[in-house]
């Protein structure tokens, strides 16, 4: 029973998932700091106070929802422009380099002719 548990823990995807969770938590702190300490004060400097928590519609604290919504949009934009777009560019460049480095496979006729030539050289 313990061997099965050890095998489960040592499978590649479990370790990869654990690493992803740890890195994701650390990255979340970086993004939250970027939003709270850099972007939100910048928005506040440009457009007044960025805190909407005082806005209420009757008993509903509408301002807290607006704060959460603005925070979500800013975090999503930060992740998109600081992570997704650069990773897409890196991926595009790597694919372009791979396409240039690896010649296309020869046509079927060329492959057959090479095999025939190889056989003829063996006989000679």
TrEMBL record:
Channel that opens in response to stretch forces in the membrane lipid bilayer. May participate in the regulation of osmotic pressure changes within the cell. Keywords: Cell membrane, Ion channel, Ion transport, Membrane, Transmembrane, Transmembrane helix, Transport. Homopentamer. One of its GO terms (cellular component) is plasma membrane. PROSITE patterns: MSCL. It is a multi-pass membrane protein. The gene is mscL. This is Large-conductance mechanosensitive channel. Belongs to the MscL family. It holds the Pfam family MscL. It is found in: Cell membrane. The chain crosses the membrane at residues 12-31, 65-85. NCBIfam families: mscL. It comes from Thermus oshimai JL-2. GO terms for molecular function: mechanosensitive monoatomic ion channel activity.
